[in-house]
Design goal:
This protein is mainly alpha-helical and 134 residues long. The chain folds into two domains: 64 residues, no CATH class; 63 residues, no CATH class. It is built from five helices and no strands. The longest helix has 30 residues. It is flat and about 55 Å long.
């Protein structure tokens, strides 16, 4: 998504997003090793448990920064519409899943996947959103 533009703000956003995704994966592995292999507990367990959330917070910040720095209003509009589609898709999916889970018709949805679900819906909406402007 948005890989074809050459604006510095967009290149920074793309780099930050990929780096953030890589860090989430790496820190998730650290978490699994710490808790399942080393059986981490006590006060140290709390900051280690939230480690994978830190890059997610950073990418959210970088998304807002990109929207503030991008000079191309059309590119900003596309990203905002994709973000809205991502939010809508995520809310719809987690709401339906939650009701199914309530009545034991679906397994528990790991909350850590919600952020990935959001970006999946945002990315899938990009061709639809951009086609409207051709």
């Amino acid at each position: 998504m948005l890989c074809f533009s050459k604006s510095p703000a967009q290149r920074r956003f793309t780099f930050s997003s990929w780096l953030g995704a890589l860090l989430v994966i790496l820190l998730s592995i650290v978490d699994v090793l710490a808790f399942r292999v080393e059986h981490l507990h006590g006060l140290l367990a709390y900051p280690v448990a939230v480690l994978p959330a830190l890059p997610i917070l950073w990418v959210i910040y970088e998304t807002g920064r990109w929207l503030a720095l991008e000079k191309d209003e059309f590119q900003r509009l596309l990203l905002i519409q994709c973000i809205l589609a991502g939010v809508g898709g995520t809310l719809a999916t987690t709401t339906v899943w939650g009701w199914l889970e309530t009545f034991k018709l679906a397994p528990h949805l790991f909350p850590g996947l919600v952020y990935a679900l959001f970006w999946m819906f945002a990315a899938l909406s990009y061709p639809v959103v951009s086609r409207r402007y051709r």
